[in-house]
Specification:
This protein is α/β, with parallel strands linked by helices. It folds into two domains: 161 residues, 3-Layer(aba) Sandwich (Lysozyme-like); 64 residues, no CATH class. 26% of the residues lie in helices and 15% in strands. It has five helices and eight strands, in the order E-E-H-E-E-E-H-E-H-H-E-E-H. InterPro entries: Amidase/PGRP_sf, Amidase_domain, PGRP_domain_met/bac, SPOR-like_dom, SPOR-like_sf. Keywords: Hydrolase.
Amino acid sequence: MKIKSLPKLVDLRGKTARDGDYKRFGLESKTDIAIHHSLTDEGDSEAFARYHVHTNQWPGIGYHFVILKDGTIEWNHDLDRMSYHVGNGNKRAIGVCLVGDFRYYEPSLDQKKALRLLHEALKEEMPRYERTLGHNEFPGYEWKACPSFDFRAVLDKAKVEADVKRYRIMTGTFSTAEELSKGKKRLLSRFNWTVYERADHSNFNPPYRLITGTFVSKEEAERYASVLEEE
């Protein structure tokens, strides 16, 4: 499947914030696909482009493609352009970013489907394709929590996820890291759950929350949420 025939594709090439142009090195220079997450709960190509241009002072958005939560694929650069997203690997890598902070939750099913389709199309378009790597697998980026989800499992056709929803419980906020730690200990002593800590990136205080692992049904999540509210 070629790029232009992908479902829910929006061509934004040359339409988002920019301050110059990225160089072209020919499609033969592209051997890698780099997978990113935005580290934000919301956003789109225009928002990321403004940040990359006005804050990072880059020529334009760093990602060739951005996948929104509803599965929309935003196309930002011709495949032969070298944009900024993996340092010394920029010349050979096409950047794909999924909107979300996947330290705390999984990409949506629509995003996973879109990623699989886009990945297959890119491999068809890239005559010298060799590999697909996460951002943190490129030299110098081992420290980055990106993309923070198992993209290889998503791309593995044998492991395509069933079309089911999963639910989490998010607690109210805690005013300090100490209170957060105490709350986490109480949860772990009461329930055999996986629990994640989260600092909300906002101007509101208090900023700390706890997020549980997933529940298969909404009813199960609501039942436990009611128990927590009573305690």
